[in-house]
Amino acid sequence: MSISKKLGQDSRGDAVYKNRLIVFALLIAGIFVFNTLVLSSEISKPKNLGDILAEMEKANTAFKTLKAGIVYTRTITLLESTEISEGELSYKKPKRMYLKFFPPRNEVNVVDGKYVWVYHPSEKQVEKYEMTGSKQSQGVSFFEFGYGESVAAAKKDYTITLLDTKEDGKKRFYILDLQPKDPKAQYSDIRLWVEEGVWLPGRIELHESQGEVVNVIELKNIKLNKGMSDKLFVFDVPRGVEVIELFK
């Protein structure tokens, strides 16, 4: 969809569209977090793409839960517009997520494994999406990357390359570029910044409309494999809140 067409949508449609983008992007953020390993004080030789993917997949076997601060930035380059949202993220395998955005966005996203709930307290409305719905197939399929056969599955849907390697003191970052093989894919380009030793993408870039729109996710103060109750991922609709089921 071109920028000009997006600008022609009414305000409600635009809000729904942006919320869907946030949900998709955060699903991706959750799935690309892997187990933290101890980084050697001695910098080793840079790894190749095959070794990087292998390390990420190995680390995933030990990853169960995650808590982190999150900064979500959405930039529309043509309009020179940037929106920044900050919040707290909790994630638990399989496919459970709780994300609370602080004001001014003031929004809660809950993924319970079957549905995605986007709650707007000030509007007394919650949007409900089926994770298996055709409208979310792109986001959900990408959400599976990192589980079991996921690397092989990702290779079927994306052309994965090692775009660059950057050094920052004793830290090394690998920048992976994922190009979708489907020309109708939601994101035209995806880039992951993976820290060596941690094997965690601390920065995720999702490009839309051939780079006219860029979504960036950054995870801060990450805590892995801490106790986390399943009740956190159950959304009980508050009294007086309207449920909007989209794309039915």
Question: What does this entry look like structurally?
Answer:
The protein has 248 residues and is an alpha+beta fold. It has a single domain (3-245), classed as Lipoprotein localisation LolA/LolB/LppX (outer membrane lipoprotein receptor (LolB), chain A), CATH 2.50.20. Helices cover 21% and strands 40% of the residues. The chain has five helices and twelve strands. The protein has helices at residues 3-7, 11-31, 49-60, 137-143, 150-157, and strands spanning 65-76, 81-92, 96-101, 107-111, 115-120, 125-130, 158-168, 171-180, 189-195, 200-208, 213-224, 242-245. A twelve-stranded mixed β-sheet has the order 7-8-9-10-11-1-2-3-4-5-6-12. A hairpin with a 2-residue loop joins strand 7 and strand 8 (171-180). Helix 2 runs parallel beside helix 4. It is globular and about 60 Å long. It starts with a helix and ends with a strand.
Question: How are the SSEs ordered, and which strands pair?
Answer:
Elements: H1 3-7, H2 11-31, H3 49-60, E1 65-76, E2 81-92, E3 96-101, E4 107-111, E5 115-120, E6 125-130, H4 137-143, H5 150-157, E7 158-168, E8 171-180, E9 189-195, E10 200-208, E11 213-224, E12 242-245
Parallel strand pairs: 6-12
Antiparallel strand pairs: 1-2, 1-11, 2-3, 3-4, 4-5, 5-6, 7-8, 8-9, 9-10, 10-11
Helix pairs in contact: 2-4
